[in-house]
Design goal:
The protein contains 3 helices and 9 strands. By secondary structure, it is an alpha+beta fold. The chain has one domain. The strands form 4 sheets. The chain has a 3-stranded antiparallel β-sheet with strand order 7-9-8, with no helix packed on it. It has a two-stranded antiparallel ribbon with strand order 1-2. Strand 1 and strand 2 form a beta hairpin.
Length: about 120
């Protein structure tokens, strides 16, 4: 329960058990197309800066971060739906009043999955 992990999307620390259902992170549920951007929102990845003067001065841009996600979700790489019975023994350690995507008996870990559940 005290284990802290780093979210691969937002680089924030989170605890797996206490962060579920809070949607404190963001992601793109759609696919990426080079011409059109993400299918969910149309945002595109910024191109690397190849300014000749910039390069001649010795600078190099080697990392371009993905655009911030358009859909709220939980931190972590696993966004699969959680059945309430699988976390029943830990329910007293979780503040369920902060859950955003709960439709008994399932807890949805992203707004997209919650809104498209049936």
């Amino acid at each position: 329960m005290d284990e802290l992990l780093v979210c691969p999307r937002c680089d924030n620390y989170y605890q797996p058990l206490t962060s579920i259902g809070r949607w404190q992170c963001r992601y793109h549920p759609g696919n990426y197309d080079i011409e059109k951007g993400f299918s969910c929102c149309g945002r595109k990845v910024r191109e690397v800066n190849y300014n000749r003067t910039y390069v001649l001065l010795g600078a190099a841009e080697t990392f371009v971060p993905d655009p911030k996600g358009c859909t709220p979700c939980d931190c972590g790489s696993n966004l699969s739906t959680i059945h309430i019975d699988t976390i029943a023994q830990h329910i007293d350690k979780i503040d369920i009043s902060k859950w955003k995507g709960f439709a008994y008996p399932d807890l949805y870990r992203s707004k997209y999955k919650y809104e498209t559940r049936h």
